[in-house]
Amino acid sequence: MPVSVCVFDAYGTLFDVAAAAREVAAEPGREAFAACWTQVARDWRLKQLQYTWLRAIADAHADFWQVTQDGLDWALENAGLAGDPDLRERLLSLYWELAAYPEVPQMLARLKADGFRTAILSNGSPEMLDAAVRSAGVTEFLDDVLSVEAVGVYKPHRRVYELVGNRFGTRPDEVLFVSSNGWDAAGAAGFGFVTAWVNRAGEPMDRLPWQPAHVIDDLSTIPQLAART
What we know:
Elements: E1 5-8, H1 19-25, H2 31-34, H3 37-58, H4 64-78, H5 85-95, H6 104-113, E2 117-122, H7 126-136, E3 144-147, H8 158-168, E4 175-179, H9 182-191, E5 194-198, E6 214-216, H10 222-228
Parallel strand pairs: 1-2, 1-4, 2-3, 4-5, 5-6
């Protein structure tokens, strides 16, 4: 069956998860943070993801906002900055306003013009996703925003990917699923989606039983990829 729905992970795929730390590092008076912001951003993202996996395995679900705060607290302590509550609050506030990658609005607009249905499928809580979509100005290009909160477990659990078929009435092979996380693209491939891994950092392929069908550098070619899949 040809692809009729294009579904995107949100954080790191449509929205730049390093944007908050990068912006704070450029602010006056943030010299100590500026010296280590790349480490903090990397640790924050890594712990955020690790905590979703651990909570899923342990059946100890908490929403993504809690996980995001916990990940940041670890990252700040690791950098010796745990004693700066103003820095913590500033970083968290900006996480609700993450910038989209430059190609995102035009890419989504092209998909809609070509007749594809579009959606986000994310670990993010509904409130966080709503804020990010509005801040990025892409609301009009999305048919829906699906959150794992509907099933109470994080990706790559099958119940998360099943949300797409439940919403759009599609078979897995009618869905092009796009993620910047190799493990997410692999998990979605195992579920049966046609998958594309946005490998912006040029990382090695994850050693998992499944692999994405496509590996791309950014999202600009997604409309062409969807049209020929």
